[in-house]
Records
---
Amino acid sequence: MFEQPLPRWLGWAADPEQARRTPFLAQSPLFAGLPRRLLARLATRFFEKVYHADDVVFEEGDPGRALFVVVEGSVEITRATTQGPYVLNTLGPGDAFGELALIDDFPRSARARVATAGRLLILYKSDFDALIEGNARIAVVVMRNLSRLLALYARRNPLAPEVGPGSEAAGPL
Amino acid sequence: MSAARLFAWAGLAALAWLARGLVLPIFLAAALAYLLSPALVWADTLAIRRSVAVGALFTVIIAALVIAGFLLGPGMFAEGAALMDRMPGLARQIDTGLDAVVRELGESAPAIRRLLPEGGHWVQRFVLDRGPSEPGDLFEHAGHLFLLAILIPFFAFFLLRDMHRLIAVAMDRLPPQHVETSVAVWRELNGVIGRYIRGVVLDGLVVGALAALGLWLVRVPYPLLLGVFAGLANVVPFVGPLLSAAAAGLVVVLTPGQGLAGVGRVVALFLVIKVLDDTIIQPFTIGRSVHLHPALLLGSVVVGSHALGVLGMIIAVPVATVLQETVRLLLEHRRVLARRVRRRDPERVVA
């Protein structure tokens, strides 16, 4: 009822950044299926940060505490192998990474480096937890989407082989 | 460290010293901002511009205060005026009563007579002499209060409007690789402090309303004033409920016709409120925001009282909670880093 966009005559009071964020998040596979009013609530919990090319978002083994969504630019996900760093995936606008931090506090399984300068949205686990306390549907939808992504990754990599040249693209981090 | 940097730090320290008077208003403004922030989160979900949302929120608050003033003001004003009228008589009654207690104590236990304070003029010595003595002092105190009443909403307005910008600036200053962990720690602490402040205020409102209603039902004079006092005093752990019960008890003692039965009713009322507060109200209001061991809770209040008086007692619990949470998060961080070492070099760890 409440979280509807402002009527046209109240356009002067609208915050363009927030208004843009909700439809942008709706495009991300992780948030697919969330109704607009819940997406609007979720959108308020994100922080936005500008990253320069070659900035490291997190290293493999770092504690995972947040989920990232690429708004602008691109992010390269790499994993250390015996032959050197191996690029698992390159993510663009709308792609999310670091999503496993919303589930557990295990170390990051790969390294994220900004390939092209841009902006990232950051959602901290504590904020997500606080939000889903009163909005169980957000938790259900996000966890269902995350399970789908994990299932997709598991089907592509049935024996969970060592990552290296020839293996499939990166799964959830 | 270069001379220029040393000068800059010295300048900053001098500036901080000169602006020390602003610490209390900024602290109270931050508490007010925490209290009001859920309304702004709701405005954010509607994609309303921050400045518009904060302006509208303050307009609503001012309107609510005006309406509350119209509804409750006359009753509280009448109670306050009646209390002021009775003040000289009350002071004499308190002096006589306390003199009698000290005399009785001295007669029944001569060994402690030396330890007892001298009798007479209790109210003058312990209340009036500690307050402003000159009319000039009174104006100065009133001026301070007026300044606080202006500065607190002023700072709270700008904190609410610009905090997200300050956070964005701070995040841009942090090394990119440390943004995740450092801001995550701040977000957790921010959540704890916010929940605690909102919980304490809600708890104070409920306790104050219950006290006012209960006192009115047991026919204690000045129920509104005593209820407001009980709500405010409830912010101070342990001591607050005792103080509000003592104040109501004192009013009963000094009211003709109430007698010991009246004191018993007040004690029973405040015991019931305390039990309700601990078992039903606090779990709903403060809930899981504070996980301090009772000994640590009491210790923090005592240390706060010694360091900063009443203000120290009020901020003791959130400060102790923040310290405890910081230590917990640091230990958790170390545990995760140790897990990383084990993953990278399992043989070394096993060895």
Note: Confidence is low (pLDDT under 50) at residues 346-351 of chain B.
---
Amino acid sequence: MAPPAEGWKRADDADVLKACVAGDEEAWAELVARYGRLVVSIPRRYGLGREACEDIFQEVFAILVRQLAGIRRRTGLPKWFITTTHRVCRQWFQQAKQGKHDNHALGDESAMISGREPPPDLLVQWDRQHLVGQALRRLGGRCEQLLIALYTDQGGDGYEEVAAKLEMPAGSIGPGRARCLRKLMEIIESMEAAE
Amino acid sequence: MKQQNVTFKHLVAYASGELTGRDASMVEVYLAVLPEAARQARHLQEVIQTLRTDDRVTPTAEAVRRALGLLHVPDAEPGPDWLAPVRVLARLVFDSRSTIALAGYRGSADGYQLAFETDDARVDLQILPRAGEDLDAWRIRGQVTLHDDARLGAVSLMQEPRGTVVASIEPDCLGRFKIDSTSGVYDLRIELDEGTRSIVAPRLQVGPE
């Protein structure tokens, strides 16, 4: 399957997955980039350390490789990643209870991690974060930079700081923000409609 | 700001929590009479809130590099020990070859039925020669019945001694599957919960001993 002219970044999950089944390494790289933050953030949210988070990250993508040809429903990948990552974390937790991981004490996280499914409120939160994050990636360019600078933890700056950082007039921040948010909302709505 | 002059830019400022007093009230009155604008404002608020509270972390470059290399890694690539799927050996609980045939038994005289059980599942198998084909062609029809809410994955026929997968199939929604093979001794592996667990029916004799 030939990649789209603009690359895999704006392709939907079904097409990227199909290309991965065919062995397309660029499509695979897109899948890792698309879902990497989601996957590594789940064990982190459960309080696991960096090494465990990276082992779990690796295993989830290894599971996906093993099941690539067998994944019939090629939509619903966010839910698949969330559920699979949760279950790998649960496996880690069961091993930790048997003392197989050194120097790691799970506190309140144990209640979240021991269930067969992720806690519903976290599932909704992760799904939402992934959707908006992906829409931002698809938006790209100056708009992505502007919205990150204004709204995220990496930014959250005032108009003056953002204008200086992005080298744009402070007076153009407000209209630029509205224009970029309008585009972001259109992307989100088209992604939601495709689900 | 006048109500009739509320623009998308004002909705953005409102959704971002930047409007106060009279300006905020003006927008709220506007939204109260225009449901579509109200829906748009709610959606904006939700998206902005998601952006502001996104606490996801980023994988390290090394973790990404390792993941990128997975696409062409053989199935047998080992990971950390604790990540090895939990495997449960199933017990053979019924073999029609050593039991008087019950009324209602179907299949050719050369076929036979087997049943395996674990605490979590039962696997019923019917092994039949494939009619009209060469002498060493067999069909395994099976059904996996789970006793808990585990998620059923692929069923694979594996040949010793290397555990080479000779056939793999996704069961249907009722846990039924069909696999064709030649005669021999195999392990039948049933994956559960995205491959984090599996059930193995060991040393399955397909065809005559």
Note: Chain B has a mean pLDDT of 82.
